[in-house]
Specification:
single chain; about 240 residues; alpha+beta; 2 domains; 7-stranded antiparallel β-sheet; 3-stranded antiparallel β-sheet; binds flavin mononucleotide
Amino acid sequence: MLRSRAYGPACADSDPSSDDGLVTAPEAPSRVHFDPGAMDIRAFYRVLNSVVVPRPIAWVCSRSAEGVLNLAPHSFYTVACVDPPVVQFTSVGRKDSLRNVEATGEFTVSLTPEWLFEQVNATGTDFPAGMSEAEQCGVHLEASEKVGVPRVALSPVAVECSLHSTVRLGDSTVVFGRVLHISAWEGAVRDGRPRIEHLKPLARLGGNEWSTIGEVKEIARIPYRNWAADPAIGQQVRGD
Ligand SMILES: Cc1cc2nc3c(=O)[nH]c(=O)nc-3n(C[C@H](O)[C@H](O)[C@H](O)COP(=O)(O)O)c2cc1C
């Protein structure tokens, strides 16, 4: 039975009567399906960008071999490794940030705070390679601690990286940066770590949508030994 709309050839939803081990929910809404093999890749990209949300934004600062500073937002950004500490961002196509990092082996990632919303967006403008986005957009930079590339002065957190490696994937290149140093505003740090209420990070959503941090929730991870010892834990999670 097909209970759904499809972009591209659709797959039938699984047969609810079959014993496939799924925990079914009869009240689950029907779905629209998106098949990358049957869609224009740009249209699929718009869908993908709308479902991998919210994405943190790396404000990547780099310097060209000629010495021109570059500042560009990248929302395909995350932690790649804990030990050694490595972060990653993805260049869709070959852009100046990627070329600079390859040429000089260094970059910084500054957190993009709410108070620099318009500047963050403006640094995503496709300025020519010889033009500094920071200068054009009035973003103040200051010297970093361990790398020769500056950080954004009015961003509360900056991550300093040396190039670890790159991986080419189709039209994109993933850049891995070994984290050499993190600096945070003194007033943003409490009990040994930067705190979200002082960072106010922007995040990227689908289309031209962005978001700010909403309600912050806290919950402790449940060790299995507690789960096994106390049936009430599972009952509460399942809503039994
Ligand atoms: C919020 C935001 C997030 C972006 N994320 C990415 C990204 O993850 N990868 C990418 O290649 N371009 C991304 N872009 C587009 C680049 O910032 C844009 O192409 C920029 O001109 C690249 O600068 P560069 O050529 O100086 O490196 C993003 C733009 C904005 C505004």
